[in-house]
Every structure is written in structure tokens, then in C-alpha cells.
Automatic annotation (TrEMBL):
<protein>
    <submittedName>
        <fullName>TonB-dependent receptor</fullName>
    </submittedName>
</protein>
<dbReference type="GO" id="GO:0015344">
    <property type="term" value="F:siderophore uptake transmembrane transporter activity"/>
</dbReference>
<keyword id="KW-0813">Transport</keyword>
<dbReference type="InterPro" id="IPR036942">
    <property type="entry name" value="Beta-barrel_TonB_sf"/>
</dbReference>
<keyword id="KW-0812">Transmembrane</keyword>
<dbReference type="GO" id="GO:0044718">
    <property type="term" value="P:siderophore transmembrane transport"/>
</dbReference>
<feature type="domain" description="TonB-dependent receptor plug">
    <location>
        <begin position="140"/>
        <end position="238"/>
    </location>
</feature>
<keyword id="KW-0732">Signal</keyword>
<dbReference type="Pfam" id="PF07715">
    <property type="entry name" value="Plug"/>
</dbReference>
<dbReference type="InterPro" id="IPR037066">
    <property type="entry name" value="Plug_dom_sf"/>
</dbReference>
<keyword id="KW-1134">Transmembrane beta strand</keyword>
<keyword id="KW-0998">Cell outer membrane</keyword>
<dbReference type="InterPro" id="IPR039426">
    <property type="entry name" value="TonB-dep_rcpt-like"/>
</dbReference>
<dbReference type="Pfam" id="PF13715">
    <property type="entry name" value="CarbopepD_reg_2"/>
</dbReference>
<keyword id="KW-0675">Receptor</keyword>
<keyword id="KW-0472">Membrane</keyword>
<dbReference type="Pfam" id="PF00593">
    <property type="entry name" value="TonB_dep_Rec_b-barrel"/>
</dbReference>
Length: 801
């Protein structure tokens, strides 16, 4: 019965959301203006063109809307009178027409727009950008364009960290594991996609913290309810990295050098011929010694006791490097395919392991390697058989393999001192030369249909597969569990219906089915037997998302979802290196999510642009999956908690004056608590009832300011200066009722970036940066210390036409 109540609430909310607004708007004396906006030379419809109605005499704004995929628009006029109707679209000249409105009449006007030949001083009034189109959806989504970060040395994870509501948590320097915190949830609760495909199985060499910022066009952050098109099972939200798939010719190359002997370089060549042949090649590499200083406890090998306090020491075994290449080849604008692209990602990484999941366990010889071999396919086509039918198919499969080594015959402390084992046995923690192959596959099928104006139906199905098999070459006979593969299959099927009421109000309702199957084999403690764990789960969820445009500047959003999150392969089977352990009997999480949002924006209408947004979230999660760390072994694993409730809000404010000045900031607060009242199987109240969830930042924020100066020293040059502030409030490392004094301290850091672009088309760039200017001690997951002050320089070349 507990799963029936959310379904009942869902349909009640659906009824109210669909019926009440229609009743409110149903006035019979209204007049309607309909029509199309098309490209004059070709007659092709222009989707998301802006059509705006104003009073002819006063110029007062009355209404506006965006065209659909057929170029159609609908406007409702409540008062008769004389008006002007203006249509505009990106890269086209705007067109204005006058119209006299009589009561209860219908009017039809078509706009034929042309691409003008403009001098540099002339201005083109634009339509909605792709990012703004997404922002108009009913989902609580925030956009970030990446252009201003492409000249910096930042990777994508560091850019994502600047978005309101997000905190990227790292276990160290370059190449370290990252953990995304969004809406108070972190880790695998937040799903990451690239062009709509899950990144879980793409390999660590192609991770968010290894990809240069220049590869992305924009970043979409869904706070709460995630559209079915992403095919995810996220509870905490989702991040979608959108790459630049325009038909331009692009060539760029860059190299950067920074503190801790950090080197980053990359190049990109992309071109589409007149006949529609497309190719792209994008190699890049990252290297760092990661030998920054940390404050650590020192183990005295003479007494086997820790020395009092901590000492500042330099890391000595944290080198990391990865090399990767992204290839794409295909065709565009064919009768049988709007876009068909075959891709391949090849990558290799080497990573020295300095410490375990806590800094109390130090290593000096452990290392991991990983190889990524990932072919992919992407197909898109808009059909004329059915009205507005669009189909896309995306798939990839990773043939990668990994290796974990632990062979040193002794132990290290943080001074780099070495003590041999008394028995001379190899292995700092556990002797291994473990070879394992992780086979990850993903395929996503999407179809969309627009049976009538304002109505849209979407179907999405995402299947992901995982299989691991390995062996430890130092063992004379393979462990029993290594003889069988560990497997995990997940499928998320979604169906949605969207109704758009004249671009004033739109609502999406959706249902999802979540299915998973797990096969796991676990060795007994004595290694003489193996237990087989097999589990299949299937659940239905659903939700509703609605948005209302209260005039031109204000957008209101509300959404509800009953959803599930299926355990990931890492949570089920671990990482294979003996430090991240699997829990094969994890249960899926279930959650009821409510989201409210409001945005005020003057973007696109004046030199001064102001955007303010606020979002509020409520989550009630059962069987919450929490990552825990053993303080005695330094290993990490995942466990199910009974019930967790989260309440939170985040606020953002951004201002810009032309392209000269920009200011912005955001602040987030989340109250995430354990709501399991009684100890398992008893009536005894739990000591940690209503405690905050440990190791989770609950209050944090960012601020930034920037100025862009033109014609500095050279005609046509551009000098860009950016400042950033990062704040994280103190948070608990352990359950407060058990160990309230164990905390991660408050952190405040400052960064500055300066870039200078010169050349006739700003082709050359030189950038300087300083991160953590005042060398503050920064910590993250389970008090792992991050790098101190660092400097970097980057040179780059860019050509585009």
C-alpha cells in the first residue's frame, strides 16, 4: 500500500493542474492571433522564434510566445485596440506588423524572415537560444554557457562547481575521484550525462574532471525531477553536458602549465562539408605530480604510535596522467538521416594511490591503470509520415580494462619513510596484481510526436549493462568468485505528455518503469565456497511538472515525482582495487520529490540584464544508500539507511551590463536528516534519530565578478578579468550524536583568472590564473585535503567560421 499513495496523489495533482488553469483562461471574449514564422528563401519553419505583441500607442508589452517545431504561434488578446506584432529569430532581421484587434475575433499573420548582411556595428535581434529553450520547460533546470571559461585551465568539474546548488567534492588533486553534491544529495544520487547519454560507463579517462571546459557548449542542471529524455533514475537531480555540434569549421589547440608540475594540452579539428560529411578529432592529455602539501598525522615507526598533532608534509606518491582521443565521423542533412555520427573514445590513465579513503592510511607503491575503448553511434531523424515525429538512437559500449597493483613489502608514513614488513610479505594493504575488465554498455531510444498544436508526446528507453570479470595473477588459483562475472542490467522506460497553453502555461505528466537485475558471486571468509546473489526489481513511478509565465519577466515552476534510484555497479561490486568495496544486496531507493521554483529575468531586452532565481526542494527517501568509511581499515562501502528527509533551498542572482561587466552569486542551504526513529526490530529510539546525515555539506555558496575590456594595447584585443569566491560551512564528519566534535572545518577560498585575446578574430589567447589565493587549507570527502595555492598559465589558438 505504501506505493499506492504516491500514485493517488499524482493523479489528484494532475487533475487540478490540468483543469484549473484551463478554467481560468477560458474567457469567450478573447481574440486570438495565430500564424507562422518561416525562413523566406526556403519556406522552412523557424522553431523558437519570438513573437511579441505591444500596444501601438504606448509601446507597453502585452504578450509574447515562442514558435513550435512547425513555426506556429498562438497569442491571446483580452482587450481590443491597435497593436504591433514583432517576430525575431537568431541571426535574422526582425519584422514588425500592425494589427487592429476587435473583440472575439481570430487573426492569422505569417512572418517571412531573412538573414541580413550586417556591418559590425549593426545589431541582430535574436530569438531564444538553445539554453533558453530548455529553461522554458516545466522542469526546474538551470543553464550555464561555458564560453567565458574556455580560455582558463579549468576542467568541466570545476566549471560545474560554479553553478547554484552544486558542490564538486574531490579526494585530491588532478585525476582524483570526484563527488557531485546537488540539492543536498551527492555521489550516485546525482546522474551525469553527456549529450543525453549516461557517463557512468565511459571510463575514468573520460571523466568530468578530465574533460577540458572547451569541449562543452553549455551545461544543463536539473534540480529534482529529470525529464524522461535523459533516461535516468536520479533522486538528487541530473547534470547534462551538451557538446558543440554545430556545423561550423573549428580548429583550436591549447597548452597549459601549472603548480605541482601540472601539464594539460588539447586540440580539436571539426568540419562539415557542403555535401554534409562531418568529421571531428579531439585529442587531449593531463599530467600532474600532485605533490602539494598537506597537514597529516605522522606514524612513528620506532614506537608504532602517532606523534602529537599534525605536521605539514608534501605528498610523494600521487602522480597522475591520462591521454584520450575523441573521434567522430558521419553525415548530416540526408533524406534518411538528419544526423548519423559514428564515434570512438580511446583513453589510458595511470594513477598512483597516496592514501586510502581516509588520510590515516598512507601508501607509497600502490597504483592503478585503466584503458577506455568506447565505440558509439548517434542517429537523429525528423519524419514527415506523422506530424512532428522525431526519432533518435544513441548507443555506446566500453571494452575497457583495468589493473590494480599492491606489491610493496612494507609500509610508508607521511614523511615518506619506509618500514619493511616483519614477515617480508608483499602488499602495503593486500598483495595484488589484479586484472579486471569492466564491460559497460548503454543504449537510448527516444521518439517524439506532436499530434496537434500545443500537444507533444515523448517516449524514451535507456538500457545500461555492466559485466566484470577479473583475476589476481599473484594467486596460484583464482578465487571462486573470479570464475563468474558480476553483472548488472538496468532499464528505465519513460512516457510523457506535454500540453502547452499558448506559451503562457505548460504542463508535462510522465510515467516511468525502473527495472534492474543483479548477478553477484561473493567468496566466503575462508575462500572455500562462494555465495550466489541474484535479484530482479521492477517499479513504477511518475510525476508532473508545470510552469507558468507571469508576464514577460517572471516564470513559476512546480513539480512532483515518485521515483526510484537503482544501485550502481560501483555500489554493488566496488572498484576492484580493494579500497572501494561492493555491497551486492543493496536495495533500490524510493523517494517522493517536490520542487518549487521562480525565476525573474530581464535577459535579452536591455543593456542591463538581471536574473534572480529561487528553488525549494523536499525529498522523502526510503532505503537511502549512504557511503561509509571504515576508520580502522580505510575502506569505503555503501549501506541502506531506513528513511531520510531533506528540505532545502538555493538562491541565485546574476547581473550584467552589455558584455562589459558581470556579477553573480548563489547560496544554498539543505537540512538532510535521518528519520528512522527506532533501532531495527525494536521499539528503542535510535540515538541518531533526526541527526544530520554525516559527511554532507549543508550550507555553501559562490560569488563571482568579471570585467571585459576591449582594444587594450592592440586594436581588436580583449582583456578579461574574473574573480571567484567559494564558501563551504563547517559540516559533520560523523553522526552528531555519536561524535559531534568530528567536523570538516569552514572553508573560504578565492580565485582570479586573467585572459588576453588578440588577433583579427581573437584567435590567440594567453591566460593566467591563481586558485586559492590565500593558500587556505581546503578539505573534502572524509577530511581528505585538497591542493593549496596554485598558479597556471595557458596559451591557446582558436579558429572558427
Amino acid at each position: 500500500m505504501k506505493h499506492q499513495e504516491p500514485v493517488i496523489r499524482f493523479f489528484l495533482l494532475l487533475f487540478l493542474t490540468l483543469i484549473l488553469p484551463v478554467t481560468a483562461f477560458a474567457r469567450h471574449d478573447n481574440s486570438r492571433i495565430t500564424g507562422k514564422v518561416i525562413d523566406k528563401p526556403t519556406g522552412q519553419p523557424l522553431e523558437y522564434a519570438i513573437v511579441e505583441l505591444r500596444d501601438k500607442d504606448s509601446g507597453k508589452f502585452v504578450a509574447s510566445c515562442a514558435t513550435d517545431s512547425l513555426g506556429k504561434y498562438v497569442l491571446t488578446v483580452r482587450e481590443p485596440g491597435n497593436y504591433t506584432l514583432k517576430a525575431s529569430y537568431t541571426g535574422y532581421s526582425q519584422m514588425t506588423k500592425e494589427i487592429a484587434i476587435e473583440p472575439s475575433e481570430k487573426y492569422r499573420l505569417t512572418f517571412e524572415l531573412e538573414e541580413p548582411s550586417l556591418s559590425l556595428e549593426e545589431v541582430v535581434v535574436r530569438g531564444l537560444s538553445e539554453g533558453e529553450r530548455v529553461a522554458r520547460l516545466a522542469y526546474n533546470v538551470q543553464m550555464m554557457e561555458t564560453d567565458k571559461y574556455k580560455s582558463t585551465t579549468l576542467d568541466l568539474s570545476q566549471v560545474v562547481d560554479k553553478i547554484s546548488g552544486i558542490k564538486i567534492r574531490e579526494t585530491g588533486g588532478l585525476g582524483s575521484d570526484i563527488n557531485v553534491s546537488l540539492n543536498g544529495f551527492s555521489g550516485k544520487h546525482v546522474k551525469i550525462f553527456i549529450d543525453g547519454m549516461p557517463m557512468d560507463g565511459m571510463g575514468s579517462a573520460f571523466g568530468l574532471n578530465n574533460i577540458p571546459a572547451g569541449m562543452a557548449k553549455r551545461i544543463e542542471v536539473y534540480k529534482g525531477v529529470v525529464p524522461i529524455e535523459l533516461g535516468g533514475d536520479a533522486i538528487g537531480g541530473a547534470i547534462n553536458i551538451v557538446t558543440d555540434n554545430t556545423k561550423r569549421t573549428r580548429i583550436n589547440a591549447s597548452y597549459s602549465y601549472g603548480s605541482f608540475n601540472t601539464h594539460k594540452s588539447g586540440a580539436l579539428v571539426e568540419h562539415t562539408t557542403k555535401k554534409g560529411f562531418y568529421f571531428m578529432v579531439n585529442p587531449y592529455q593531463n599530467y600532474s605530480d600532485n605533490d602539494y602539501k598537506v597537514n597529516a598525522k605522522i606514524l612513528d615507526f620506532a614506537t608504532d604510535n602517532y606523534l602529537p598533532g599534525t605536521r605539514e608534509v608534501r605528498r610523494f606518491h600521487g602522480a597522475y596522467h591520462n591521454e584520450a582521443v575523441v573521434l567522430k565521423l558521419g553525415v548530416t542533412d540526408k533524406k534518411w538521416a538528419d544526423r548519423l555520427i559514428f564515434g570512438f573514445i580511446g583513453g589510458y590513465e595511470y594513477k598512483e594511490i597516496q592514501n586510502a579513503s581516509t588520510m590515516d592510511f598512507v601508501f607509497g607503491g600502490r597504483y592503478n591503470t585503466a584503458t577506455t575503448l568506447l565505440p558509439s553511434i548517434a542517429y537523429e531523424k525528423k519524419f514527415n509520415v506523422l506530424k512532428g515525429l522525431r526519432v533518435s538512437l544513441n548507443g555506446n559500449y566500453n571494452f575497457g580494462k583495468s589493473f590494480a597493483a599492491d606489491t610493496v613489502r612494507g609500509n610508508y608514513n607521511w614523511l615518506g619513510q619506509f618500514k619493511p614488513h616483519d614477515n617480508n610479505l608483499p602488499g602495503e594493504r593486500s598483495y595484488m596484481k589484479y586484472h579486471y575488465r569492466d564491460r559497460n554498455g548503454a543504449i537510448n531510444l527516444k521518439a517524439g510526436l506532436m499530434p496537434a498544436h500545443g500537444h507533444a508526446i515523448s517516449l524514451s528507453n535507456t538500457l545500461t549493462t555492466f559485466s566484470r570479470k577479473g583475476h589476481n595473477e599473484v594467486e596460484s588459483e583464482a578465487q571462486l568468485s573470479d570464475r563468474y562475472p558480476s553483472e548488472n542490467f538496468k532499464n528505465v522506460l519513460g512516457l510523457s505528455y506535454k500540453y502547452d497553453y499558448r506559451s503562457v502555461w505548460n504542463t508535462s505528466i510522465f510515467v516511468k518503469n525502473y527495472t534492474s537485475h543483479v548477478e553477484a558471486y561473493v567468496d566466503s571468509d575462508d575462500g572455500q565456497s562462494v555465495s550466489h546473489h541474484s535479484r530482479t526489481d521492477s517499479y513504477f513511478g511518475g510525476g508532473i511538472a508545470s510552469t507558468y509565465f507571469a508576464g514577460r519577466f517572471v516564470q513559476l515552476k512546480a513539480s512532483y515525482e515518485h521515483t526510484y534510484r537503482l544501485p550502481t555497479s560501483r555500489e554493488l561490486f566496488g572498484d576492484g582495487d580493494g579500497l572501494e568495496l561492493g555491497t551486492s544486496d543493496l536495495k533500490p531507493e524510493a523517494s517522493d520529490n517536490i520542487n518549487l521554483g521562480m525565476t525573474f529575468s530581464t535577459a535579452g531586452i536591455a543593456d542591463h540584464q538581471l536574473t534572480a532565481d529561487a528553488t525549494f526542494q523536499y525529498r522523502n527517501v526510503t532505503d537511502y544508500i549512504r557511503r561509509t568509511v571504515s576508520q580502522t581499515k580505510g575502506t569505503a562501502s555503501s549501506v541502506n539507511e531506513g528513511s531520510v528527509r531533506s528540505l532545502g533551498a538555493d538562491f541565485g542572482l546574476r547581473y550584467s551590463f552589455r558584455d562589459l561587466i558581470h556579477l553573480g552569486g548563489n547560496f544554498c542551504y539543505y537540512d538532510m536528516r535521518n528519520m528512522t526513529r527506532y533501532k531495527s526490530g525494536t521499539n528503542v529510539e535510535s540515538t541518531i534519530y533526526r541527526d544530520r546525515i554525516p559527511n554532507q555539506p549543508y550550507m555553501y555558496g559562490n560569488a563571482e565578478a568579471g570585467v571585459t575590456l576591449r582594444d587594450v594595447a592592440l586594436k581588436g584585443s580583449m582583456l578579461d578579468i574574473q574573480y571567484a569566491l567559494n564558501y563551504i560551512h563547517e559540516f559533520y564528519l560523523d553522526w552528531p550524536s555519536y561524535n559531534g566534535d568530528s567536523t570538516v572545518p569552514m572553508q573560504l577560498s578565492h580565485d582570479i583568472f586573467v585572459s588576453y585575446n588578440f588577433g583579427k578574430t581573437h584567435n590567440f589567447t594567453v591566460s593566467l590564473e591563481c586558485r586559492n589565493i590565500f593558500n587556505e587549507a581546503l578539505y573534502d570527502n572524509f577530511n581528505l585535503q585538497k591542493p593549496g595555492r596554485s598558479f597556471g598559465i595557458k596559451i591557446g589558438y582558436n579558429f572558427s567560421k
